[in-house]
Amino acid sequence: MGAFVISKRYNDEYKFVFTSRKGKIIFTSLSYELKFECEEDIEKFKTAIDAADFLKFKSTSGKFYFKLMLEGNHFATSRKYTTSLRLQKGIDEIVRYGSNSEVLDFSGNNFIFSD
């Protein structure tokens, strides 16, 4: 099962990543000024995962990636994949495990684990 991992960026804004069962990052969220906004969007995504759209792209260097759209808004961007098959496997993992994934908070000195 994957996990949502909350952390801080260098500019002190918050972000989260969704990691695969093997610990690889599948996508990274946009930035959030406040941590509770980040937490709210994770919960919103977990409940509305069936309504998410995955827009697939190919970079100029030939790598594949997707933009995750939720309610018509850009929500997150995936890592780069070497093949379109691997890209699809990443999407499949989000759809399969996203709604049941735990949330890990690594944004401060205290680590918080929640389901």
Automatic annotation (TrEMBL):
It comes from the Bacteria. InterPro entries: YegP-like_sf (IPR036913). This is DUF1508 domain-containing protein. It comes from Flavobacterium ranwuense.
